[in-house]
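Support request, please re-run this one:
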Amino acid sequence: MLGQGRHAALALVSLLLSWREATPIEVPRDARIQQELKQPPTLVRQSVKDYIVDPRDNIIIECEAKGNPVPTFSWRKNRKFFNIAKDPRVTMRKGSGTLEIGFRSGGRPEDYEGEYQCFAKNDLGTALSNKILLRVSKAPLWPKEVLEPVVVTEGSPLVLLCNPPPGLPPPFTFWMTSGMSPIRQDKRVSMGLNGDMYFSNVIARDADTDYSCNARFPFTHTIQQKNPFTLKVHTKEPYNDTSYNATDPFGGRKVAESTPTFLSPSGSQSSKMVLRDEHLLLECIAAGLPTPTIKWFKKGGDLPGHKVKFEKFNKTLKMVSVSEEDDGEYVCMANNHLGSIRHSIFVHVKAAPYWLDKPTDLVLAPDENGRLVCRANGNPKPEIKWLMNGEPLENPSPNPSRQVLGDTIIFRSVQMGGSAVYQCNASNEHGYLLANAFVSVLDMPPRMLGAKKQLIKVIENNRTFLDCPFFGSPLPELRWFKNGQGSGLDGGQYRAYINGTLEIKKARAEDEGTYTCVASSILGMAENQVSLEVKERTRIVGAPEHKSAIRGSTARFTCKVKSDPSLPVTVTWTKDDKPLYLGWRLKKDEESLTISNVNEGDEGTYACTVKSEIDQDSASARLTVLEEASLNPSVSSALPPDRPDPPMDLDLSDPAARSVRLTWIPGNDHRSPITEFLVQFEEDRWEPGRWQNLSTYPGDFNSVILQLAPFVNYQFRVIAINTVGQSQPSRPSPRYKTSGAAPDAIPRGVRGWGSEKDNMEISWEPLLDLERNGPNLRYSVWWRRKDAGEEWSNVTTEGSKHVVHNTDTYVPYEVKVQARNEFGPGPESNQVIGYSGEDVPTDAPTDLRVSKVGSTKANIHWKPVDPASVRGEFKEYKLYYWRESSLVPGLLVSKEKRTKGVYSTASEPSGILSDLVPYSRYQMFMVVANGRFEGPPSNTVEFTTKEGVPDAPRFFRINRRSFDSIYLEWDKPLEPNGILIGYQLKYRIVNGSRVGGRTQLETFFPNVTDFTLRLPDRSTRYNFFLSALTQIGAGEVFAEESPPFANQENFTDTTGLVELTDASVASSFTPTPPPLASLPPTTIAPPTIAPTTATPTTPTTTTTAPTTATPTTPTPTTTASTTATPTTPPPTTTPATEATTTAKAAVLVTVRRTDQSVSVAPAWEIWNLTAEHNINYADVSWIHNFPAGSSEFVLEFTLDSDKTVKVVQVNQQPPIRVADLIAGAKYHLRVYSHAFNSISSKYITFKTKAAYIDQVDIATQGWFIGLMCAIALIILILLIVCFIKRSRGGKYPGGGFVAGFAEYLVRDKKDLPLDPVDQKEDGSFDYQNGSSVPDRNENENSSDEDNKPLQGSQTSLDGNVKESDDSLVDYGEGGDGQFNEDGSFIGQYTVKKDKDETEGNESSEATSPVNAIYSLA
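Re-run finished. Output below.
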């Protein structure tokens, strides 16, 4: 047997080594292809495996599938064919296999219990659902029993058994008194996991109440109540109830103490089996006096604190999401001052099967190979079984193209008609997994999926992608061509991707044209065209500049635009990021915006935006509105500086051949001294109308001598410059013409080179226009062969080049050039060496070979050529090499030729070829190159690189699919550089900018590309480092950080989260505005700032105000704003969330002027700051009297826990919604002006709500207590009325008060009708049909014993029981009641019941007002 297993393993290894697997075909989601594509059935919906249904509802068993042709459905029940047509109660939904079983015409739901399985079938295969175990929910009644009083000695332990009736699903148990009060649980008294009530020791006060176990059945929403226990506590000494206190429950009496003993579990050790990913509950309840304390340990390690929780006062250990490492021995220890006791619980973690590699659908072309892999794990190891179309696969297979090898099915050379649906069943004793995966054999000619003949417009120099989606089976090969020419585009400027996309790395004008993509396979070919147009970038060449305008004047902003002539553009203006509405005062033309009659409301930031259909540009400038000087002299003196006025009265004097004196009068400097003057000139011969800079002079000059060029007719102008900017140009001076002269300049850039093999082209740069110095400019050119003793040859030309013909190939020449005009020759240039033309080299390098081949490098060697054979300037040996194929099976590679140049004159040259792709087969050859040509190729060499480490995974995504888990997904590397053996994932916890905790490591098989990480805490974040593995080692790391946790919403980055409101903005200045109306808040997510220390910046220039100011104390914090703001430290506590602030400090407005500084102190304030906070956001509102349009504020949040500061800059009116706050955190908040940092509100303190609010204890709610009191009061009044009637000889001569009252309620309809209630024999009430007629036959058939009231009791110390005639009998229906750890009631009863909701009519309990109270509650 062992030999056979070894033989099969060797056969599998040899098969995998010799077998080349095709890449599975991915079928695109194209509607036309999906419509034509034949596809086996795929299940898309099915019911759960363990399916419990409500007997009052119709039964629906889901089974839906897709496929082409549309699947047909059939069912098996208990492994036999289920004939739906023969059962009138069973119908199948149209278009699906979902069954509906109805009971309107009768029938019992229990008759349909069993195991169901759905089959979806079409011509290509059959898919199976899970085996669905259908069971009907049951809520049996509590068995009848008469409970005698429980006699117990004070200080002894006690266990009250619950033993609820078995239900499906099991009921939830809880304990109450017969008076509907929950039993208070504590360290001494608590309910166990089995529902029993445990007393570690009994005290005398325990006899003051009775104890009733209740069972709530979730499906029927009913509560069953067990008859109550009463206790009789024997005491050795008399007990006085008034002497009881919590610290001494025995009232000073001596009660025998005892060492701890375990009530549950029994013995010194026990065992517990739990399945992986389920919750583990361990319980230890101890008896003893004093009450023992419970502690838990794990032998050989620590308890995993991130998933362990202690409940029931440490008596229960709860562990969530159990894993294999939680297997082991857990010890609970109970101790008091008399001693301790231990109990060991051996936990065995088993696992139902879970997927390691779930089989996926496989689409193959004819003659291709493929495989299905089904890997699962569990404890014990699951058994893998394969089925095809629902039938077990035989092994060996009769089909030679299919071979089953354990958890893998190998397909070889598949053919049409080989499509089927395969099922993988992984099972062990704890459960099973069933997965469907189809194998579809598809042949389809190539076809294009995208739009036909697209037109793509791109901006010049931008990265561009041309898409050409295609499909075919087998997968076609796609190539790109430009303008119908070439051998395919891939390499250099272009890069072709296997998905059909062509990348142009940097689009240029010459890249325009029509690109054709051609997809071809053995079944045909298809093509599509994409036209590319490259456009000039749209940009603003004359941006608007900041302006200051006096009120009532006119302001003008310019915006000059340059764009592609073929692209229409639109220019729009905005003010403070809001649309600008043009009118009679605001006018726009093509290049400017004019604002006439400026007022305070016009102040703000104006932005010019130019848009084309593919790009845009924008620029902005600020307008400041000033008061008129005559109306407000104090403000006029503080006006900001402006540009100077242009110089005036330009005059020319002292003329000379190449110079002249220019004099001018400076204009007004507008409160900023002139720093320099710029002199410009214009000449009318070469470039008339174009002003050019001549020279600059200091600001205190107004007369200078200008150095000029000969033979130029000049005109001058002057521009004044200060710190604000340039003035307008002055008026032009009179013209001044200089006389001519011979050229002064030497021709530059002289060179000689051969454009053909028998010529030499001599070229140079022509002189500039201002270097001509006279008319009729020409050039004299001289040349002669170097070292040949020849005379100079020369020629005169007006151009900038001359060609010498009939030269020898590649010989040196001496060359020089001279400029001349009508006034004479200029200086000669230096002699330069030029060469005649080159020819094609005649020899090829020989004996090309490689050595020391690594994964990315190889040494190359060759024998050099004869230098004479180069026939030109030796440039390099050029090596052409390309990647012929990859050694990784199925990996397609680009065969683009690459080159490497090597300059070497050695006798045995060599070089290093680097940047190779590992694990690949390369070919190469070498040529010798001169300046123009390459010689013949050398011998072609083939070599193979070694295996290396892989590239980074193609992508790495991190998603949060739930609060407690992170889903990681990645893809294989583009270049594996070898055979992938798996992936390596390292991760560690990160907290802000700090990294903590040890690094965790996970490894995966190469076919695993996702991973789910369960979080120990919802706010935990990780740094992940993923890399692929080969035999060589780990490859390039892909690092990512997990996304932050958001409580209620998924917030994006802070950018773009400002949502403008409709808040109205006052258009005029108002000193003290009324409070603003409530507005919808603006939502802002503030940036998070690490609590680092920084020094706040201070103003550069300050001027002391005449008023006394209280300085603010700066807090060293780093904020997200561009300027750190001096702030006052927030107070430690602030009881209110509203504050009123009056800014007392003077606000300094500094005017930049060298001779004076003026301070203005506006009377602006911020007050009434409030914050309405929620879980993770706050609506912030305040009142201010800033002018409209100039109010830009900063909201500063200081986190109380670590003093981290968040700042949010806003220019909207309040209220503002600030998102992304921390739930349950305490913040200090203030608002201050962005322009005037000292104008600030007072700090307020608020605390956001907790992220999750525990369920409210209903028993402590005021409305519930009030409701119960009102009901009790009504009952008391009715009892008094009954008593009065009885005492006056009414119709209730005998019986107890409660019995008479019950008969009064139920039978006397005239006095108090109970219309919505239908009394049943089990003591419950039916609220469903609204009938008011009770079932009198059933009531009359009830025995006298059944009509007895529930015996409530008060137990005295001597054990006598006093019977009460008005005690409550039973609970009726209830709702989802729950208990806190202390036993308090937190549920609320609801009623939903049908006639058939319980089994049998065995109830012996009489109708009780308790049921009515339950129903009302």
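The first helix runs from residue 2 to 18. Residues 1-19, 629-637, 1047-1161, 1290-1417 have pLDDT under 50 and may be disordered.
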